[in-house]
Structures are given as C-alpha cells and as structure tokens.
Amino acid sequence: MTMAKIQNHSALPDWDVARWFHPRFLSEYVDRAIVLPDVCPAGIMPNGTVAVVRREWLDSFRFSDAIGDIGCAMSLAPIDTTFDDLVPAWNELYRRLKALDKTVLGSGNHFIDACVDEAGGLHVLVHVGSRMATEEKAAFRFAKDYKRFEDRAVANHDEIWQCVKAVLGGRQKPRSLPHDTVDLDGAWMILRKGVTNSPAGGDVLIASSFDDVITVGTAKASIHELGDSMSHGTGRKHGRGEAKEVPVDEQLLRRRIVIPDDLPSGSWRLEAPVHYRHSSEVVPLVDAHFDVTNRLTPVAFMGGF
After folding, report:
1. Domain count, the chain
2. How do strand 229-231 and strand 203-206 relate by DSSP bridges?
3. I want to staple 26 with a disulfide (CB 3.0 to 4.6 A). Which of 21, 74, 192, 210 is the partner?
4. What domain range is 267 assigned to?
C-alpha cells in the first residue's frame, strides 16, 4: 500500500524513498505523491516531492513539518556587467547586501550566482525564501499566515534584486519559480516541496552546485505525468551533519569561481559542490518532459549570510 501511493522518478530504490515519509502522514493523509530525482530527506515528506494530501493533516502535524520555507524560489535575469568588471562588482554587491544589516539569504542552500549562458551573456540567479524563524514556524497557522509569508518571500527577492541591479545593471524583470508552495483543491492540498509548479509551456529551472550546470527549459505536455512539477535542483548527497566531516579545498574553489573576498569560508563550505548530486545524475531522469532552452554555468557565488 505504501508504494502504491508513491510514484518514484528518482534513481533511488522505492524502499529508500518510502522511509523518508512519516508513516502516519503517508497512510492517513496522502492520496498520492510524486518523487522527483532531487529527492532527499526533510521532515514528514522529502524534498523533491509533490503530494496531494487531505487538509486534515494540519490537525496532526505542524505545517513546518512538511514545508519549512514558504515561497522559497529561484529568480533569474540577465545583467549588464561584463566579465572584465565582474570581480570588483561581485565584491561590491556583497558589501551592499551586508550593509542591509540583516540576514539576506539565511541558512541552507540559499545563494546568489552569476552565470554565463551558451551565448556568452551573464545572468544572476537568486535563491531565497521567506526566512521563517523558529518561533514563526511554531506559531504558524495556515489560513492566517500562509499568504503573509509568501509575500515576504517575494519582498526578499525584490530587495536583493534592487541591490543586484544597482551594482550589476540589467533592465529585465527577473523570472521567478517558487518551489515550496501550496495549492488548494477542494478538500485537498497540493504540497510542492522543493519542486516547481511547471505546467505545459511553463518554465523549468534545475539548479545544482556552483561548480555544475544549471538547466533552463520549457515544460512539455507530458509533464502532467509528474503532477505538473519539476525538480528545482539536483539535491544533496551529503546531509549537513555528514558534510561537516567531508574535506573541502576552499582555496581551490576560490580559484575556480568568484567568491567575495570578505565572505567567510565557514558560511558556505557545507554548500560546496562535493555535497550535491551532479546534474548528469538527475537531469536525464526527467528531461523527456521539457525542452532545454539554455544552460548556464556559474562563474561567481555567494551564500550563507
């Protein structure tokens, strides 16, 4: 019965994926769940999952047990800065964001990348959410608070983009793809955790580590088989606890990619590329469901502040 509810599109065995769902949540409240290749454990349902669940699940679990960062999204836009000016501009952007005197990106794998596309143009990719604090998660009530935190995530992106455009230029409005969201459908909730809502014709963006390729595309009609959803990244292969024991050559990474001079290594070493699956392990499992329109290669990174 357990696997009858789960469609597993990852490279992991079914039994491994099933154990990342809370047994009661799965048996009593989940109607069906689709697990995508970036799956990794987190709370009562894994990241990389879209699930149709009975609304009554909130009588037994906290909302943050399922989704902990409402409205978390990636936003992407081209910039005017050239390669010749990127290093000083990237340092200036970091200083400007730090001058906000607040948590900008927060914990986890939230980041800002500068990327080069296949035609040689530069883009910025921002990954941030609503930055819910522990006490806010404990006090959260879906009907009262969801929209407020969703709006806060949008405001966080807007604030970062104001700084990006002031330093790096760019006139296009960023394209935003949220991946921690809820849709209501009668007595049901559609929970998307670490997956984008990408119906046919919609945007697809599968990020990875800052030493890998970011795949951009347009969803095909067949994406309906995946619940009109797509992975937002490649997923971790080392949990953050395990990652603390994995050696990382921080100086080598700083030679390969632009990282702000003043950004402490301790703030991002748990997000180093060695801790993430490579795009070649993930994208081929779902690329039948979208047309690739671009591939972006990160050339600059900041995160963990």
Report:
1. 1
2. unpaired
3. 21
4. 3-303
Structure tokens that stand for 72 in this block: 């978390």
Query: Cα–Cα distance between 135 and 116 in angstroms, integer?
Result: 39
Dihedral sign for Cα atoms in the order 57, 63, 64, 66: positive
Residues in the chain: 305
Angle between helices 83-98 and 142-168 (to 10 degrees): 130
Query: Coil, strand or helix: which one is 281?
Result: helix
- Quote the pTM value: 0.94
**Tokens standing for residue 218:** 């347009």
295: which strand partners? 215
CATH of the domain at 78: 3.90.1860.10
Other CB atoms within a 10 A radius of the CB of residue 268 amount to: 22
Cα–Cα distance for residue pair 260/91, rounded to 1 Å: 5
* Alpha-carbon span 128 to 79, nearest angstrom: 19
Residue entry with tokens 């037994």: 60
The CA distance from 141 to 135, in Å, is 12
Query: DSSP secondary-structure letter at 28?
Result: I
Closest by alpha carbon to 78, among 127, 126, 124, 116? 124
Strand locations in 135-246 (E):
175-178, 180-185, 188-193, 195-197, 203-206, 214-219, 229-231
Residue pLDDT, tens place only, 12-70: 999 999 999 999 999 999 999 999 999 999 899 999 999 999 999 999 999 999 998 99
Q: Record the tokens describing residue 173, joined without a space.
A: 């409005």
In the structure encoding, which two tokens stand for residue 219, read together? Answer: 């969803």
